[in-house]
Every structure is written in C-alpha cells, then in structure tokens.
Amino acid sequence: MRIKALLIGLAASAALAVSAFAAGGGEPVGDQQSPVDIVGSIPAQIGSFAVYYRSTDFTVSNDGHTIKVTPDGGTNIVAYGGKNYTLSQFHFHHKSEHKVNGAQEPMEVHFVNMLGGDALVLGVFLEPNAANAAFKTIMDAAPASANLVVHVKIDPNLLLPKDQHYWMYMGSLTTPNYSQNVRWMVLRTPVKVDQSSIDKFVSIYPNSARDVQPLNRRFILSGP
Q: What is the mean pLDDT of residues 98-105?
C-alpha cells in the first residue's frame, strides 16, 4: 500500500506541474526542480522501459548552454507505461548534474523524450577511460561556437548501458526554461567514454552542471 501511495503521489506531482511547464520563461517555476542528490531511494515496482533508438543521421549543435544532438529524421522511441515517447534531442553536462549520495561523475548525458507536453528524460552517467564511437564522433564534430551545426551519423544506443536498473522521480528540465512535468529515469550504471573526448567538451563548457535542487516533498524510487 505504501508503494501504491508513492506512485499515486508521483502522478499527482506530474499533474500539478503542468501549469508550471506551460508558464515557461527563463526563471524556474515550481518547487520540483532538477537535478537532485539521489539519496535514500525506495525500492518499488515501477516497471521496465524499452529503448528503440536507431543508428541514423543527427545534427550536432552548440546552443549556448551545451552540445546538443538532434535526430535529422526517423523515429526514435522510449516505451514506458504503455506510452511511446519520441526522442527530441540529447545533450551533455560536465560534471554530472545528478549526484548519488553526494558524489558526482565526470559527465552526464540527458536523452529528452516527449509525448505531447510530457517529458521522459533518461539520465546516463559518463566515465573514462574506454573508447566509445558515438561519443567520440559527437565531440570531434562539436562546434566551439554557438549557433554552428555539424551533421554526423551515430548509434545513440552506444551511450546507454546494457543494465537498465534506474532511479525515478518527478522533476524539471535543468536548462532554461526549467519546465517541470518531467519524469526522470536516471540509470544506475555509467557508460565508459574516452578521456580526450571528455576534455573536448570541457574545453567548450567547463562547468555546465546545474546545482542540485531541494527534494522537497518528492520521493526517489528505484527499480525494476
């Protein structure tokens, strides 16, 4: 019964956040902001998800906040809870925005998937030192100046761990306009990438991580 109540609470939090998501603007709206420090998660039957990303053409851009990667076409889906969320873009942060028991990883990638006004974001920690073809291709192409774009072909699945155990909570985007109504699924297993590509990102955005935000009345669930 406790877990059921927690899940109901998560759904209610999402509904309350809709008005904040619509409000937009450059300043945070609402008290369910991201990222957070993942501490004291509660085991729950929150279900598994399935990723249907394709190896295809992507646009790599510098949007003034981060290096962003956008599909040029085709359908890239995350299926969760009987719904299909379409990949809008993914981007990177140094250091990781989410912490786990106060500890940060070197980087974090956020896969932003949308269904109408609802967002499901997969957060993946990145660690050195191992070759990762997708990350290297992106960072080799990453424009140092804002508003420049480069086209590449990559397999985004290479930036996802095989182990899909995750933490889930309701939060917000971590870049302006900090909209809420975001279901965060932070994967527990980091992905290895090469240090030289991390260094390339750091040379462009040496500190692109938002500070952790108060958890307030939210719960962090772990599963499946």
A: 98
